[in-house]
Amino acid sequence: MAIDTVTSAPPTPARLGRLAARALREEALHTPKPGLVDRRGGGAHRDMTLPMLLASADALAAPIAACAAAARSMPPGRDLRAEIGGIGRDGERRMLAATGGVNTHRGALWALGLLAAGLAATGTVAGAAGFAAALAALDDPGAGRASHGTGAGRASHGTGAGRASHGTGVRLRYGAPGAMGEARRGFPHVVRVALPVLRRDGRTSALLASMSRLEDTCLLHRAGPAGLRAVRTGAAAVLRAGGSGTAAGAAAFDRLDRLCRRHHLSPGGSGDVLAAAIFLDAAVSPDAVVVPDAAVFPDAAVFP
Ligand SMILES: CC(C)(COP(=O)(O)OP(=O)(O)OC[C@H]1O[C@@H](n2cnc3c(N)ncnc32)[C@H](O)[C@@H]1O)[C@@H](O)C(=O)NCCC(=O)NCCS
Ligand SMILES: Nc1ncnc2c1ncn2[C@@H]1O[C@H](COP(=O)(O)OP(=O)(O)OP(=O)(O)O)[C@@H](O)[C@H]1O
Predict the structure, then answer these.
(1) CA 96 to CA 59: how far, in whole Å?
(2) Residue 156 beta carbon below 6 angstroms from any ligand 2 atom
(3) What one-character DSSP code corresponds to residue 124?
(4) What's the rounded Cα separation, in Å, for the pair 20 and 131?
(5) Exposed/middle/buried for 46, CB within 10 Å: 0-12, 13-18, 19+?
(6) How much is the pLDDT for 9?
(7) What's in the keyword line of the UniProt record (predicted)?
């Protein structure tokens, strides 16, 4: 049964930007997280610190608010897609300027920017997911334009003109649809996996639920299918043991944490999924949580 009640007017764009930045900060601060930046340090990332992630989160409030404002003021369609693509690339430049050229939140900006646009336009979780999916399905006329070159400092990531991103490389090599595929399907790991688990069992379980299922291109890029499989299996083992709060679950969590550190495995896509779930949880009343319909999630059966 679909329960998709609009309980109040959608939050304003400025509020959505603030809530998104807060969600990014809360995700970064949540500790412990296997492989990801947290209060203990950079996890599997040699080039990131917690203060860097917090600065990056703050820098993204304005572009995410701008995505929401655009969705309020323009009808859905190609012009809005072009506008949001430009805002996204400008947001990536701001992120790189805030971090000295490190890609702290590219995937997170993508997810939260599209979902903020969807929330501004529709006010509901299912509406936001469907809206984001429809936008992501449209070609971005500015795709391939550099998001580097602002004097932000060292460019650590191949998102600029002429260089393929990690996600593109992995898509070509393994056929993984990655962050674009997740968006085009209406962010099922955010809406149908992490958000309900977050509300029931908290943030660590929500992160693990995503890690146990997501085809994360960060993991594929660094460690191939074997690395991805090891992380998914490790996360599933924690959940099977009752979560990190049980003795067996805590031991399994510790094994997963050490595995990620030893092999430099970062589940960055699941970090984004957790941040997006925290954002939706804060922005939309629990009464408006939905079981989305098959039109938005054609493969919804995959997510019980
Ligand atoms: C589609 C995006 C993510 C680029 O995709 P690509 O796979 O090439 O990117 P890249 O490898 O640099 O990073 C992808 C990031 O997504 C996350 N991710 C990885 N796997 C997944 C997954 N299966 N599901 C969701 N997120 C994932 C990770 O954080 C990863 O680092 C996006 O950045 C983009 O096109 N931006 C252009 C600007 C734009 O249109 N913005 C609009 C909204 S602001
Ligand atoms: N707490 C977190 N720590 C690290 N990354 C996170 C976190 N939360 C979300 N992420 C996501 O993980 C992605 C990190 O990207 P990735 O692992 O590809 O880093 P990179 O530095 O570009 O790659 P590499 O280090 O392999 O060269 C970001 O796009 C970001 O959105």
Answers:
(1) 9
(2) yes
(3) S
(4) 17
(5) exposed
(6) 76
(7) ATP-binding, Membrane, Nucleotide-binding, Transferase, Transmembrane, Transmembrane helix
Which among 106, 182, 216, 274 is the best mutation to test ligand 1's pocket, defined by most ligand atoms within 8 Å of the CB? Answer: 106
Q: Does residue 50 contact residue 38 with C-beta atoms inside 8 Å?
A: yes
Question: From the CB of 110, is ligand 1 less than 6 Å away?
Answer: yes
**pLDDT at site 147:** 59
- What the block records as the tokens of 247 is 């003795």
Ligand 2, closest atom to CA 157?
Answer: 22
Long-range contacts of 20-23 (CB under 8 A, 24+ apart): 20/60, 20/61, 20/64, 20/65, 20/112, 20/116, 20/279, 21/57, 21/58, 21/60, 21/61, 21/64, 22/57, 22/282, 23/112, 23/275, 23/276, 23/278, 23/279, 23/282
Residues 6+ apart with CB under 8 A from 30: 38, 203, 204, 207, 274
Cα–Cα distance list, 94 to 56, 97, 105 (Å): 8, 5, 11
Spans in the chain with pLDDT lower than 50: 1-7, 148-162, 289-304
Contact present, 266 and 222 (Cβ < 8 Å): yes
- Establish whether residue 168 lines the binding site of ligand 1, counting it when its CB lies within 6 angstroms of any ligand atom: yes
